């Protein structure tokens, strides 16, 4: 049984495709580097190095065969948190190479269907966060925490760099300890952890209060439908919404308390969402 291991980047996955073709050894599985310990060396593992020129060449060839849509589908699916997604993308891109644009319509192929479904789910979550992200003005820098189901940070960068080009901002994936940081020139990904709760300026607190007042004033109480609200926006997305951080919603408050663990050290409050 042959297993290919790569560095968890999309370029690394493209290099894995090249390596498998070069060796004429089709993998039974593809894993990301941090997953190697789970395999316990039971099978032959081939470690693939990432070479940007090779990745670029593979990308260009696949684009010529299947078009930009096929590569975009693979790229979005790659950021999904799904089991065996790397192997599914490998098989999908293999079909793109063999069948060209027709691969997008081979719904009877399990890997094609899995990749298209992953792309759809990731794209939908990315689109949702483009609309519901809430930034806090911390004085010279805007900070937005998120807790998405999939790793969508790299998919948000260009959107907010265009939308907030003249501001410094941080989008923080609290569950993965990653962040996008933008300095009015470019954005980049980095490891990011908050050691304690943020010191929010009084002016920002006043803006949040005004927003909650507006939100409550336009709400028609008699037409409130919590069931429909949850179907349109699951509660896992409510955690960092300013308008939902309100004591009037006992159910939401209870949900937050179940997710948050608080401790106090030397008088300072530290918290972590599980």
Give a description of the structure.
It is elongated and about 65 Å long. The model is unreliable at 247-274 (pLDDT under 50). It contains ten helices and ten strands. With 274 residues, the chain is α/β, with parallel strands linked by helices. The two termini are 37 Å apart. The strands form three sheets. The chain has a five-stranded mixed beta sheet, with helices on one face. It has a three-stranded parallel beta sheet with strand order 2-1-3. A two-stranded antiparallel sheet has the order 9-10. The chain has three domains: 2-125, no CATH class; 129-191, no CATH class; 202-273, no CATH class. Helix 4 (68-78) packs across helix 6 (110-132) and helix 5 packs across helix 6. It is 46% helix and 18% strand. It has helices at 10-23, 36-39, 52-66, 68-78, 85-99, 110-132, 153-163, 202-217, 226-232, 250-259, and strands at 2-6, 29-32, 44-47, 136-137, 142-146, 168-173, 178-183, 187-191, 260-265, 268-273.
- N- to C-terminal separation? 37 Å
Structural class: alpha/beta
Number of domains: 3
Q: Which regions have little confidence, pLDDT < 50, spanning 5+ residues? A: 247-274
The helix/strand order is: EHEHEHHHHEEHEEEHHHEE
> How much helicity do the residues have?
40-55%
Percent in strands: 15-25%
Integer average pLDDT: 84
Dominant shape: elongated
Number of helices: 10
The largest sheet, given as strand count, sense and whether it forms a barrel, is: 5 strands, mixed
The total strand number stands at 10
Give the strand line-up of the largest sheet.
Answer: 4-5-6-7-8
Query: What is Rg?
Result: 22 Å
